[in-house]
Amino acid sequence: MRRPRVRVPALPRPAGLLKRTLRPKPAGRTEPARRLLPRTRARRLLPRTTRARRRTVQALMLGTVLALTPATWMHAVADSRLRTTADVPAQDVAVVFGAGLWNGRPTPYLAHRLDTAAELYRSGKVKVVLVTGDNSRIEYDEPDAMRAYLAERGVPDGRIVSDYAGFDTWDSCVRAKKIFGVDRAVLVTQDFHIERAVALCGAAGVESYGVGVAEPHDATFYYGGARELFAAGKAALDAALRPDPHFLGEREKGVTEALASAR
After folding, report:
1. Terminal C-alpha separation, the chain
2. Between these two residues, 222 and 172, which has the higher pLDDT value?
């Protein structure tokens, strides 16, 4: 026997609810659920379990150690070889690394390096100055600008030797050894760069002492310091792999002839 259907009367919707439902949304307002959506997604990306969190922390610690290892290596290798203009042992050659030109003249940082090299020459600490920099374009000639600056400050032109293919620190060190025959030298650069220069020249076979030029702690200084953290990784690879510089070429007699004229 079929049961009779029982109809349940529909309950009337409250008038206030109907108004809220039909009320248009004010422009610019966002529903709470949508506001929380990005935060909810971010929470989903975080590790949920204790083991996953531990592994994440360990990975971050390992990454930090690996990032700082090259800088630690540079400091360990170079720290005992750093000197001042007053106490650096006398050597035949000073190597000055390029640091850019402004309107054909050395930048302030490069000028300070050259001032230090001129002081080393005048005090008898070095006999010859090897200036190494970028001359990859006709209109850009770091070594000649460096030579002119040193000559203006009393260093004889015959005691200055130019390396026109010192495109980076490793290239300059390798070319000083293989092209110009430099076995020992005093390296001159800013203090935030000097450890890398000493470490790389040591890896290239140049026994060197470093004289770091102090600079005011301005934006350029902090930029240079931050750059060294990234450059340390490349330096470690260069020291391990010993690649040839961009341009090697035949051996030059510039340093040998300049030293012969100094005796």
Report:
1. 130
2. 172
